């Protein structure tokens, strides 16, 4: 078993739903300027808009802002974003297809949020990982009794380590829900985020356009 890319620092750019040929209730927001109690936003690819705290536009309300980050309410969801970051609040496509969009960061990594057994965790897409992989703390948070899994030796960027083979009952990314997903749990704090490996990615179609990567459930 091979696991790569055990990263200690990532940037979350958010997720969104996108289904080819179908309408999607999806609000995308990019942060292009930050000031005290003000932020400059690009909403759904439109022209930059400056909002003061308390103001709203196109379903996006500015809750707080300073030179470091802005807190937004996007279609009812709270998002905290820094300069250059983006978020997309997901909606259901008219065709009912299960899909999600990930956005690459400056290093080209696709990172976002997921739910494992109902627990919210951060992940990074990693085609070099044989399975979904996580550290033991994240496994406990997701109510996975990993010590009952089969112990195996795996090769990582940090060398050979012991991992436990487990099965994730429910993995959700945006509008995609996967059941019974093979995973590996590594003792300790590495990887720092969940690695979305091939045991999940093999069940998804992936299509990239510029910095956007569309995931669509195959089965």
TrEMBL record:
Keyword Kinase found: no
Keyword Signal in record: yes
Keyword set, alphabetical order: Signal
Signal sequence extent: 1-25
CDD domains documented for this protein: retropepsin_like_bacteria
Protein name as it appears in the record: Aspartyl protease-like protein
